[in-house]
UniProtKB/TrEMBL annotation:
PANTHER family: 60 KDA LYSOPHOSPHOLIPASE, L-ASPARAGINASE. It is an enzyme of class 3 (hydrolase). The active site is at T12 (o-isoaspartyl threonine intermediate). This is L-asparaginase 2. Its EC number is 3.5.1.1.
Amino acid sequence: MKELRIIATGGTIDKVHDTRTEALSFRSNSESHLSQMLKIGRCYFPVVEVLMLKDSLDFDDADREAIFQTASNSAENALIITHGTGTMDVTAQFLDGQIPDKTVVLTGAMRPFSLSASDGDFNLGSAVIAAQLLESGVWGVMNGRVFPAGALRKNTALGRFDD
């Protein structure tokens, strides 16, 4: 089995409903939901690292460089990066070809884990399996599908990722 690290960068998967602003935001203590999600699935082996909690629509090249550096310097050879769906494809293409000796899987959610009927659990579980089985390279795992970095596309009209 490949050693696995999950790197949290934010996105909808980690957002909560802020009752003061009636908007989605991150928890004030800067904690990720990922450890709780893994515990519910009785999945205890991945290391979880919170790099940042940020909406991917606010990402810039410095954020993507920080993701690259963290992934490159990770001791594990299988990585999951939780990421907002808005620019997941941009980050996947940024990383593609830069980390040839590791399997890097980007995943996220269209609906926060903190709300009912989230796709976050399903996508995270799918990514845990995919990261262990896929060959080296950069991949996206969303909605039960695996996409090479260059084919990762969000279909906003249908609310899912498609070819």
